[in-house]
C-alpha cells in the first residue's frame, strides 16, 4: 500500500477497538464512541510508508487528541514496532528537518549519530519510548496537550543550570494543535546501565518476604541508604528548579485553591468508589487542617508533579529523575501550576508504601508479611525524608517540619490512587485504601 489516505482510513476504522487494549491509552474507563483524524503527515513515502497521525478520540463526556505512527509493514499498523522504520525519526531530528508543519530539531550544540534502529521499551505506560543504540531515547507523548510539554520545558531549564540529576535533553518534535505549537516528542540521553527505583525497591521487598526467619526490627536495611541518597537528589532537583525558574510564597488564595482541589477530588472519587466512603470524614478533616496554613509560610514553585519510584533511575553516579510531565490524567493547568515541593515528597512516600505492599496484592492475609511490609515502608520513608532534609534549600524547608501539610498531600495522592486503581486495577484498590486507613488512624491517635 502506497496510498497514505487509504492507510489512514483503514487504521482509523479499527482504532475504536484497538485503542482500549494499548497500555498508553488513558481512556480505559469509558468506551470509545468514535475516532476522527485531525492531522496526517507523511514522514516517508513509497514502501514502506511512515505516517504520523493525530486523531481525536471521542468518549462519553470527553474528547482527547492522541498521536500514532502508522505503517502497513507491521501487525496493527503500529510503526513503533518497526525497528528500521523508526530510525527515520532520529535522522529527521539530527537534520533539523520540518515535514509539513511537523518540526524535528536537536538542542543547541548537540550532534546526533544517524542511521540507528529504534526499539520500543515495553514497560512504558502512558507514553511510548524508543531507544536508539545505547545513546538516545525518544519519548512520544501519546495523549497530546496544547503547548510545550512540561517535561521538555522543565528538563531544558534544569539542564541550563547544570542539574546533575537528569538525563540531558537532546532534541524534540513539535507539531500543531488548536493553532498552537505542541510538543509531540522529546529526545534525551539514554543510560543503558541505569536501574529504575521501582525495580530496586521491589527487589529489596521481595528479598525481605522470602527471608522467613528475619526479625521485624531488621527489616529494610538493604535499601535505606539508597532511599536517603534519593531524598538528597530530589531536594537538589527542587533547589535547581527554584534557581532556574524562581519561587514565590503561597498567599491565601493559593492555599484555598490547593485545599479546594483536594476536597473536590475527594467528592468526585467517592461518588465512583463507595469503598472510600468510611474514610471521608477523616480525609476532610486532614484537608481542612491544610487550610490553616499561614499565608506566606510555604514556598511554591515548579515541581516534578508525578514523582514515584518508577520515575527515578539509579546510575553509577547517583539518582536521576525522569518524566517531568506531571500526572497524566491531570489537566495541563494543574500540571504547570506552581505548587509546594512537599507534593513530590508525598508522591515518593506513597511509592514506598506501594513497593512494600505490592507482593501482598491478591494473597491471603499473612500477618507476618504485612508487618514486614509496613516496617520496610516506615524505614525507607524515614530515610528518604532524612536525606531530603540534609540537602534541602532554605526556601523549600524540611518536610519533617510540615507534618500536617505533608499528611494532607499524601492523603490527596492516595485518593487519586483510589480512583486510578478502581478504573484500571481493581485488585490493587486495597493498597491505597489501607494506606488511607493507616494515615488517618495515626493522625487521630496523635491529635
Question: What would you note in describing this structure?
Answer:
The protein has 447 residues and is of the alpha+beta class. The chain contains twelve helices and 15 strands. The chain has helices spanning 4-18, 87-94, 150-160, 197-210, 221-245, 252-272, 280-290, 332-336, 342-357, 367-391, 403-424, 430-446, and strands at residues 34-44, 50-59, 62-70, 98-99, 102-106, 118-120, 128-132, 136-140, 169-177, 180-189, 195-196, 247-249, 299-301, 312-315, 318-321. The strands form four sheets. It has a seven-stranded antiparallel β-sheet with strand order 4-5-9-10-8-7-6. The chain has a three-stranded antiparallel β-sheet with strand order 1-2-3, covered by helices on one side. A hairpin with a 3-residue loop joins strand 7 (128-132) and strand 8 (136-140). Helix 5 (221-245) packs parallel to helix 10 (367-391) and helix 6 (252-272) runs parallel beside helix 11. The longest helix is centred in the middle third of the chain and has 25 residues, at 221-245.
Amino acid at each position: 500500500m502506497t496510498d497514505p489516505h487509504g492507510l489512514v482510513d483503514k487504521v482509523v476504522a479499527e482504532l475504536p477497538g484497538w485503542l482500549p487494549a494499548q497500555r498508553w491509552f488513558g481512556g480505559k474507563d469509558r468506551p470509545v464512541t468514535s475516532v476522527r483524524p485531525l492531522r496526517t503527515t507523511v514522514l516517508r513515502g513509497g514502501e514502506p510508508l511512515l505516517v504520523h497521525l493525530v486523531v481525536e478520540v471521542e468518549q462519553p463526556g470527553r474528547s482527547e487528541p492522541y498521536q500514532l505512527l502508522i505503517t502497513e509493514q507491521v501487525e496493527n499498523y503500529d510503526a513503533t514496532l518497526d525497528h528500521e522504520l523508526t530510525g527515520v525519526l532520529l535522522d529527521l531530528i539530527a537534520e533539523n528537518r520540518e515535514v509539513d508543519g511537523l518540526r524535528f530539531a536537536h538542542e543547541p550544540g548537540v550532534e546526533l549519530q544517524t542511521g540507528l534502529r529504534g526499539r520500543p521499551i515495553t514497560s512504558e505506560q502512558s507514553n511510548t519510548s524508543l531507544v536508539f543504540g545505547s545513546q538516545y531515547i525518544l519519548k512520544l507523548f501519546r495523549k497530546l496537550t496544547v503547548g510545550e510539554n512540561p517535561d521538555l520545558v522543565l528538563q531544558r531549564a534544569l539542564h541550563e543550570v547544570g542539574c546533575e540529576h537528569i538525563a540531558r535533553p537532546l532534541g524534540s518534535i513539535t507539531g500543531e494543535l488548536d493553532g498552537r505549537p505542541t510538543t509531540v516528542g522529546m529526545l534525551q540521553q539514554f543510560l543503558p546501565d541505569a536501574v529504575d527505583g521501582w525495580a530496586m525497591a521491589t527487589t529489596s521487598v521481595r528479598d525481605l518476604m522470602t527471608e522467613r526467619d528475619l526479625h521485624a526490627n531488621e527489616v529494610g536495611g538493604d535499601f535505606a541508604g539508597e532511599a536517603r541518597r534519593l531524598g538528597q537528589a530530589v531536594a537538589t532537583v527542587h533547589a535547581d528548579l527554584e534557581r532556574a525558574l524562581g519561587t514565590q510564597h503561597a498567599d491565601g488564595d493559593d492555599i484555598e485553591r490547593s485545599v479546594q482541589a483536594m476536597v473536590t477530588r475527594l467528592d468526585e472519587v467517592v461518588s465512583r468508589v463507595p469503598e472510600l466512603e468510611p474514610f471521608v470524614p477523616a480525609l476532610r478533616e486532614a484537608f481542612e487542617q491544610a487550610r490553616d496554613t499561614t499565608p506566606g509560610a510555604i514556598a511554591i514553585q515548579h515541581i516534578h508533579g508525578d514523582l514515584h519510584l518508577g520515575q527515578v533511575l539509579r546510575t553509577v553516579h547517583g539518582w536521576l529523575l525522569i518524566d517531568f510531565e506531571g500526572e497524566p490524567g491531570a489537566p495541563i493547568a494543574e500540571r504547570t501550576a506552581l505548587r509546594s515541593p512537599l507534593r513530590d515528597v508525598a508522591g515518593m512516600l506513597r511509592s514506598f508504601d506501594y513497593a512494600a505492599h505490592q507482593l501482598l496484592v491478591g494473597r491471603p492475609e499473612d500477618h507476618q508479611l504485612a508487618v514486614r511490609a509496613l516496617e520496610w515502608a516506615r524505614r525507607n520513608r524515614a530515610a528518604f525524608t532524612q536525606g531530603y532534609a540534609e540537602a534541602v534549600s532554605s526556601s523549600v524547608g524540611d518536610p519533617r517540619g510540615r507534618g500536617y501539610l505533608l499528611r494532607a498531600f499524601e492523603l490527596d495522592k492516595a485518593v487519586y490512587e483510589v480512583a486510578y486503581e478502581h478504573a484500571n486495577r481493581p485488585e490493587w484498590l486495597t493498597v491505597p485504601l489501607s494506606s488511607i486507613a493507616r494515615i488517618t488512624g495515626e493522625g487521630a491517635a496523635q491529635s
